[in-house]
Amino acid sequence: MPRRVTPLRLAALLAAALLALPATAQTTPPSLPGRVEVHPLRSTTLSGAEFLRGGSGPEASLAGELRLPPGPATTRVPAVILVHGSGGISGSTDLWARQINEAGMAAFILDSFAGRGITSTVTDQDLLHSLAMMVDAYRALDLLAAHPRIRADRTAVMGFSKGAVAAVYSASERFRRLHGSQQNRFAAHIGLYTPCNVRYQGDTQVAAVPIRLHHGVVDDYVPIAPCRDYVERLRAAGADAAITEYPNGQHSFDNPAAPALVSVPNAQSTRNCRMEEGADGAVNLAGTSEPFAQKTSGCVARGAHVGHDPNDASAVRANVRTFLTETLLR
């Protein structure tokens, strides 16, 4: 008669079997935040012209997820607000948040899309203007500044592609006066593959905090050249600005969920466009009086590439972590 195996005996056998597995067969559990909170966020939805004129728009009910690192409940910690790109929040955003937590800082994942009924702006950037997401970032800063666990003076903003416009240009003193708050300002600004091809009035008059851009050299979705030019103009104006270039970096090169290279045939790209702000909030094609429009300007292209590069992804994560640690944890 076969011997009966009790549940306790079965558990012991399974545990022994797992311990006997080689180390390479066992997985390391992912890092977990110390606490997760979901916060509602009130913002407004502005067109580009309304933003640049300092106007107002309809209210928007948004939300964000705050991930606090492990530690005493009474300890205040620095924070990084993460502003997603045209595709919305992704697994890469989650990975950045985990790594920020591992470094001892809080991460706030801002969702600018769901509350507005948007899933993606990849094929239609008119669904939400990039500048409107800057208002969301300012409101997220105000929310975190009032949080009992967050260091209001050590909160940075980091954005990706469309969201990098909010992250980088929120350093503008003009934009902060128009849409930010008097008492709160970001401690640092970080942009990954930032669209830098619009020259705004006074865009080199920025806060005296570091601005860091990270960009792939072979990006054909959002080319690097305009960001090189913008950083050069910022530095000439005395700003603490720098760009780090990644030789094999396609668009979204930091995203491990992306393939090595994939075509996005319907993506709207302004890679051939250079624009500048004119009078009364109008953005024209550079050197002309012709207004820029996503759907009608001849410089707007369709189709681009995205792709993950493991070496450049590892480098940008290390570079950003070092920068945040030196800037926010000093």
Automatic annotation (TrEMBL):
SUPFAM superfamilies cross-referenced by the UniProt entry: alpha/beta-Hydrolases (SSF53474)
UniProt keyword Hydrolase present: yes
Limits of the Dienelactone hydrolase domain: 72-261
Residue stretches spanning the membrane: none
A Pfam cross-reference name: DLH
Alphabetized UniProt keyword annotations: Hydrolase, Signal
Molecular-function GO terms, alphabetical: hydrolase activity
Residues in the signal sequence: 1-25
Top-level taxonomic group: Bacteria
Record keyword Secreted present: no
The protein's name in its UniProt record: Dienelactone hydrolase family protein
Species the sequence originates in: Pararoseomonas baculiformis
